[in-house]
Each structure stands twice: as structure tokens, then as C-alpha cells.
Amino acid sequence: MSSASDAVVVRGLRKTYGSYEALRGIDFEIAEGETFALLGPNGAGKSTTIEILEGYRHRSGGEVSVLGVDPKSGSTAWKARLGIVLQSGSEAAEVTVREQLTHFARFYPNSRDVDELIDAVGLTEKAKTRIRSLSGGQRRRLDVALGVIGRPELLFLDEPTTGFDPEARHQFWDLVRALKREGTTILLTTHYLDEAAQLSDRVAVIARGDLIEIGAVDRIGGADARVPIVRWRDDTGALQQARTDAPGALVSRLTRESGAEPRDLEVIRPSLEDIYLGLVHSAEASAAVTALDEKERA
After folding, report:
1. Do 139 and 122 form a contact (C-beta atoms < 8 A)?
2. What is the value of pTM for the model shown?
């Protein structure tokens, strides 16, 4: 149920292209100050959803409110309250990194300090470098900086750390956490499931245009999906595994029975990536069965 404190409200959102349904009536809301991850395989409908929320694509049906405004009629003042980091961004330019950010900072009444932001995205050594000379990863960091320079109320991050090295990714995560502490609402899409787990309060999973799961990052998928797996090799060398809520007790029993710790023993606690893959595979299998049934009836 939505409330007055929701930054984004989506109800029955549909998008069709001819007979193709890209979005098939999805519902979700994002609370003010929340970091919300929208996950799904390529072609699932994530980018279409975000483009509708940003006001760049018209919906075929349903209701959408972003910062209290219908995106299809959002004004310039409304758009100034948004920050957008697209999958691809900055063009080659003759200006330097600092010059570009300084230029954009003038468009906002309460912009961030340019040099502090340059440091936060890991471009301090490239501040005086012309944009055309930056590597792809460095340009991506500049895209992120341009997206947050105006202190947006709602920030769209579409695959923001593509091309980042591990150190740059962690620097970016620190920046996102700082934005969250300031009260910024963040909508994140990423193929890095560890990134979603690190940054998000809640996640939603889209597959084939349907919203198949939504919930807190540490609860999505339900309790059954989070039951640990114990794997080991028996006396014959065969690989064995068991799911159990009490992995320690199972390991103790196996050790007592064999007189020693089982070979190749490991206890696996399902990660967000494991749960996500299970949800997507289940949805795809269900869709395949439905398609086969429809074909047989035809």
C-alpha cells in the first residue's frame, strides 16, 4: 500500500509494442530515502520501467507517480529534482573533467562541491584531463558525478559501475551510502548482485515483463530459499549435499559417523545472487510450460 511518503508509486504499469507485452501490469512503490534495486535479466523490462519513470517513454496503461508528479507531464522544474546515470553517457569533449562538472554545477541552486565529488568518484588524478582522453571506465565515473552534482531528491542509477575496477566500485558504494544518509531516494539497476546486496533496502525482480518477487534484501525469496546447503564427499568419493536449518548439527553427526570431518566439506549460505537466479529460472520454466500448454491447445 502506498503512502504520502512514497517517492515512487507504480500501479498496473503496462507497456506494449504491437502484440508484444514488455511490461504486464507491475506494481511497486519506493519510499522516500529508500535504496531500491530493480533486478532482472536482459530484456526483462527494467530499462523500459525506468524510462517511463524518468518521463522519457510513455506507458500503455497503469498509473505512475514520481515525486508526486505523473512523469508523462513532468515539467522542467520536476526534472531538475531527478538525477540520472544512464547505461552509456558522456561524449568525448575538449573540456576537462573539472570544467565539465563546474559547468553543470551552475545549473543547480545547491550543487555539490566539484573537487569533493571528483575525489568521491575516483577521478582526482584526472581532474585536468580532457574528457576525450579518458578511458571508458573513467568516463563512467564522470557520468556518475554528473548525475549527482545537483543533489537530486531521486537518483536513477542504471548499471552505474560498469567498467569500474574493484577499488572504484567500493568508492562509488561509499558515495551512494553518503547520498542515502542525506535522504536521497535511489533506484538502482545492476547485474552485480553483490552490489544490490550491499546497497539496497529492498529489491524487486522482473522477468518477462512480470514482477515476480519483491521484498527486503535479506528476506526476498522467503525462508526456504535461504536454507543453508551442506556439501561433502562420502567414503566412496561421491559428492553429497543436504539442505538444513542446522548445518552445525549435521556436520557434527557426519563427523561422529565417519570418525573424521568429511572430505571437501563446505557450508553454503545462499546469497542474493543464488536466490535471484533461482527466482528467474523458476519464472522462465513456468513460462515455457505455459507456452507449451497454449501451443497444444491451439
Report:
1. no
2. 0.83
